[in-house]
Amino acid sequence: MHHSIEIDHLTFSYPDGTLALNDVSLNIAPGEKVALVGPNGAGKSTLILHLNGILNGAGNIRVCGMEVNKKNLGQIRSSVGLVFQSPEDQLFSPTVFDDVAYGPLYQGLPTAEVHVRVEEALAAVHMEKYQKRVSHHLSMGEKKRIAIATVLSMRPEVLVFDEPTAGLDPRARRSLIHLLQELPLTMLVSTHDMLLVQEIFPRMIVLDEGRVVADGSTADLMSDSSFLETHGLEKLRL
């Protein structure tokens, strides 16, 4: 059985010479929900953008058993659903239906199948009645759900999130946490929200200055105050 995500010795520098990822290796098993944490500038977003080929560093990456390369890119982008921090980056169509239908239509699926995919994806995020709504008139919490639905309509094996709770009020945040708990997919979530990590993710990977400095049990890592402080992470008060 393959891992959902396998990263071996990934190194990446930006054109200005900034070393963003330095020899990163990690594996995530099917069905695992893993948090990726670290201070600003640690390389979390850079790492995520490698998982469906937006960025391309030195090293090997396999997702869902496929090597991330130009030949496999179409299939990889269907298998790995990337949900950006800002829903505005994913919602650009006249209606919610059009946004969620975009991926399946782009894949060339027949109209009947596209409708099935849209209904299925909106049901998964509890937004079934929103098909005819205009995405830009929705609240931030609703937009985040629709952005997730645009990815679910492709029936991915893996969901990757960049700061999913950013910009949400407490009620919308709580609602999103419930949704992430419900979704039965492999998940890698980059976040600063340590309460979210504690609540959902049994495993935590800590990135700092482009390197994996810890990969282990969330409970164990959260209980080590000096470690958290060294790597710019917030200690939760119980």
Shape: globular
Biggest sheet architecture = 6 strands, mixed
What is Rg?
Answer: 18 Å
Terminal-residue CA separation: 39 Å
Number of strands: 10
Q: Into which percentage range does the β-strand content fall?
A: 15-25%
Content-based structural category: alpha/beta
Low-confidence blocks of residues: none
What's the total helix number?
9
Read across the widest sheet, the strand sequence of neighbours is 6-7-8-3-9-10
Q: What's the order of the H and E elements?
A: EEEHEEHEHHHEHEHEEHH
The level of helicity is 25-40%
Overall mean confidence score, pLDDT? 92
Account of the protein in words:
The longest helix has 14 residues, at 111-124. This protein has a six-stranded mixed beta sheet with strand order 6-7-8-3-9-10, sandwiched between helices. The chain has helices spanning 44-50, 73-79, 96-106, 111-124, 140-152, 170-182, 194-200, 218-222, 225-230; strands at residues 5-13, 19-28, 33-37, 58-63, 66-67, 80-83, 158-162, 186-190, 203-208, 211-217. By secondary structure, the chain is an alpha/beta fold.
Topology record:
Blueprint: E1 5-13, E2 19-28, E3 33-37, H1 44-50, E4 58-63, E5 66-67, H2 73-79, E6 80-83, H3 96-106, H4 111-124, H5 140-152, E7 158-162, H6 170-182, E8 186-190, H7 194-200, E9 203-208, E10 211-217, H8 218-222, H9 225-230
Parallel strand pairs: 3-8, 3-9, 6-7, 7-8
Antiparallel strand pairs: 1-2, 1-4, 4-5, 9-10
Descriptive key words:
4-stranded antiparallel β-sheet, 9 helices, globular, 6-stranded mixed β-sheet, 238 residues, alpha/beta
